[in-house]
Amino acid sequence: MAHEINSLNNASPPVILTVPGLGNSGPGHWQTEWEARLPGCRRVDLGLWEDPHRNTWVNKLNLAIQRAEGPVVLAAHSLGCLAVAWWAEYERPGGPVEGGKVVGALLVAPPDVEERPLDRRLTRFAPVPESALPFPTVLVASRNDPYLTMAQARSLARRWGARLADAGEAGHINAASGLGDWAFGRLLLNTLLPQPLPVVQDTPRAPAVQREDFDQALLWQRA
User: Fold this and answer.
1) Residue 102 and residue 135 in contact, taking contact as beta carbons nearer than 8 Å
2) Which member of 1, 14, 197, 216 has the greatest number of CB atoms within 10 A?
3) What is the count of structural domains for the chain?
């Protein structure tokens, strides 16, 4: 069953760690925009961006989490989502109720690494971890993502005990999607923060996000 969200009572605001996927995230990517705009937001340097190695990525993610000055919210994209899942599988961290360091995760556009992966390098992160994540998690999927179908996303959300958010037709939810600061993603991020950050729609190419659209797009997934 998914965890309840917005029940965090940490004294200090969380550090937001972005976790990119294959090839890193360049200019115009929402992760890059968030790092420039959001307080306490910085990137995890996983290295080996073009030649990813699962255990190396997991170890570097673990080091970044342990070095963070306070509680952590992870904002992962694509293959970075699998790095987060494998980190949880290997480290077996406690959730926020048990005092775990990670208090939430936003997992955006995870790719298929098992059935029909578009890039053979993705298979290095197979199989998909089966354990539910011990912290509140939102999995965001696009209806026309070439790397993962919406049906696969629903299944993955159930396996990981995550809340599923429908991002509409946003491709792989990357720089090519033209989302800029990605207001919808910021609203989703706010559900994982004890104190929401202001969201300003300032990217002409990005579709306007209305509150009713947000409410309809966020769905509960239960095991």
Assistant:
1) yes
2) 14
3) 1
Query: Which residue type, as a one-letter code, is found at position 57?
Result: W
Residue 116 lies in a domain: yes
Class of residue 51 by CB neighbours under 10 A (exposed 0-12, middle 13-18, buried 19+): exposed
8 domain residue, yes or no: no
pLDDT at 199: 85
Q: Tokens for 108?
A: 């955006």
The strand ranges marked E within the chain are 15-19, 41-43, 72-77, 102-108, 137-141, 163-166, 218-219
Structural domain contains residue 3? no
- Can you give the CATH number for the domain in which 153 is found? 3.40.50.1820
Q: Give domain status of residue 172, yes or no.
A: yes
pLDDT digits (tens, 9 = 90+) for 58-79: 999 999 999 999 999 999 999 9
Are 113 and 122 a contacting pair, CB within 8 Å?
yes
The per-residue pLDDT for range 26-36, each reduced to its tens digit, is 999 999 999 99
For residue 109, the enclosing domain spans 15-219
Q: Hey, is 197 helix, strand or coil?
A: coil
Q: What is the pLDDT of residues 102-159, one digit of tens each?
A: 999 999 999 999 999 999 999 999 999 999 999 999 999 999 999 999 999 999 999 9
